[in-house]
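Incident log entry.

Two folding requests arrived from the same account within the same minute. Monitoring flagged them as a possible duplicate submission, but the sequences differ. Recording both here for audit purposes.

Request one:
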Amino acid sequence: MELDQAICERARLSRDPRFDGRFFIGVTSTGIYCRPICPANSPKEKNVRYYPSAAAAAEAGFRPCLRCRPETSPGTPAWLGSSTTVSRALRLIEENGLGEVSLELLAERLGIGSRQLRRLFLKHLGAPPVAVIQTRRLHFAKRLIDETDLPFTEAALASGFGSIRRFNASFQELYGRTPTELRALARKAGVGRGEGYQFRLPFRAPYDWNALLQFLIPRAIPGVEDINEDRYRRTISLGGKRGHFEVRMHPRGDALDLRIEFPDARSLIVIVDRVKSLFDLRADPSDIRARLERDPMLARRVAAHPGLRVPGAWDGFELSVRAILGQQVSVKGATTLAGRLVVAFGEPYDGGGALTHIFPTPAVLAGTDYSSVGLTWQRADAIKQLAGAVRDGEIKFAGVVDPERFIARLRELPGIGDWTAQYIAMRALSEPDAFPASDLWLVRTAGVGNPQQLEARAEQWRPWRAYAAMHLWQNEEKDANDLLHVYADSDRTAVAGRR
């Protein structure tokens, strides 16, 4: 990725937070690399080198700064210019947790040669895939050292190291200190820890936390999710183990605070990455704003809701079921149906307060009788067909490298048309350019006459059409959750309904 030296220099000297995670600074006189916001005295320009990723700085021989902690930066932006291949490769790496991922396997999944993939990583990230994966592992391990009381043996396994010896050696080599010394430094610096596993998840400001919660509150699945005006809680299940987490805005307003209660530390990085997707923490609002505000109609809305995010999903199957339940009924009605579904078929769980169940699995929902829940036979059949396809591996929400094929496959299922498929891609895949153009509320709010005209106008919003949809769904006079949305799936005539 070409870095503009003049822009990087201005951002470094001003410690501009908008550039945090967009590049890293190597200081030749110290051998350390930092974030642009590092509070340390600015080095002389002749001693500075700029790198597009932490992995690139590490590959060049620099070690991470202990003061600004590069492992806690917002990370690589979700969209790397025109490189959808690199973006999707990073998504595959994240979905794999900290398991071993070979360059050849990654390239095969993406449908390109391993040499080409390596060239793309070097072009956009300044480092090969193996270095990116290794840096990711070390950064997560450093966060476990700093932000938890996890014993080092468990921290080593949780961060993908095969042994405590390798774990200790890696930190001695990279930081010149042992994990014990690093943890002592973190405690001295006041890095927080508390009950359960706690992490600070930074984001690029601005971030409209209130708008995101207001979108999620009425759609919360009873028993599974518990959301109020300042925090989000939910139950989770991974690898046969169950737990829950809670997310709040940090008091300083520059990060989300995540607290996890889960019995297996090896799942922590998967949980953290899913939470980042759920709350769209990898987005770069400056890039999104720059594109959307070119349209005068959207410019006013972007100014009214700076930092508006697209809510993701903890689980793609769960989100898809919730989307089907929301067809042709109110938000409140769909939430009621979701609660009945969970009570009837979910696993009981004692998470305290309103967290009472784990959402039912595809295997359970594929072979059940829905008569006790009160669903129409069409909606029950749609859920059953979707659940069967997911259970049998015909539809997967992880490892998707071609969203268009994914959307086309969803539309082959009964009861799922283009609106529902696009909405699922928007939230379950965190696809920034997914766009339910057949939503007649979007048509009306955009001031066009039909979905075809909306599609044409939306071309100028690429690759951020999902964010444009969120802005158009906002209402300046009423709470966005009270809006009646009218949509038309491609396999049915226009119907009044709510998301």
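Request two (distinct sequence, not a duplicate):
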Amino acid sequence: MKKMEDLNYQGKRVLIRVDFNVPLDENLLVTDNTRILKAIPTIKFVLDAGGSVILMSHLGRPKGVAQDKYSLKHIVPTISELLHQEVYFAADCIGADTKRQAEKLVPGDILLLENLRFHIEETVGVESFSKELASLADIYINDAFGTAHRAHSSTTVIARYFNNNKAFGKLLQNEIEHIDLFLQKGEKPLTAIMGGAKVSSKIGIMENLLPKIDHLVIGGGMTYSFIKAQGGSVGNSLVEDEKLELALEILSAAEKNNVVIHLPQDSVIADQFSNEASTKIVDSGNIPAGWIGVDIGPKAIEHFRSVILESKTILWNGPAGVFEMSNFAHGTKCIAESLVDATKRGSYTLIGGGDSVSAINKFNLSDKISYISTGGGALMEYLEGIPLPGIKAITD
């Protein structure tokens, strides 16, 4: 891996691809600055080493059309506040005016470019657009793990113009090292907890993990595809009927790899998909018609907790139930609390995927986990073993 520490930044302009795709409220104010905070170590490293910084990012999905609600100018005050210095803003990410602003930078300065996705060339990966971005700086740093799976101009194509003057930022480097710690160096017993709605979205991950792990804990909506595939009754629970054969193949592959699969013995079920629904607890393979599985039950919680506490390395990807509804969040919260307890005992715990991260943040437990990945789709593809274009562009 080409690390930041390997380069000389004195008097150089450094173009950093960050992920500042942050949520804004109706007044266009930042409501969650987590992604900006995580980029600060990389930015400060360059500034302290005598360089100037040019930040580039996307925000939302403007699809090649400049729209005020997606302008990065709205986050300038937040970046300035967190870095305790003025941040200059370029009204475009390319063009003569932007080039002049970049050339005026002196060591210690920071310039934020306008939303890359105001140009359709960004997502298409157009060579000329990438070349124009590259012309702004001497060094390229990719610190946006969340977009590393996209072969976009600012994440992949641009790297061709920097020869050896390119590297991973501290955040992206950290992501790779922590995920590889699970995939390649994890102490056994090694457990993966897979939740979420659909089997189809996790097939590749499970297939790639089975030769590496000892336990696979399954929760969330995809539970019921596995249970129905084995002849259980799941009522009106979410099921991918076209994936039942695939679920059986996963069970068979797990057996061949000596992986123990843990499905929830019982479930909380509801008579409608609503927080105000009537609920009861039944065996997960005996759900009556008209009822829906919405959370794992007390027996499953107790069993899953015992598996987690006996594990030394644990990945959690996907909630155990409909945690967004307060009445169906208990199972997911108990898994989060079990991971916290496992971490206290010395286990390595890794959480990734949007819903899992949202859950751990909702329960205010994020600071009690070994590592929380910032990547959504990028993490999923990395766990599947798919080479990420944004990483390959640097390592090549």
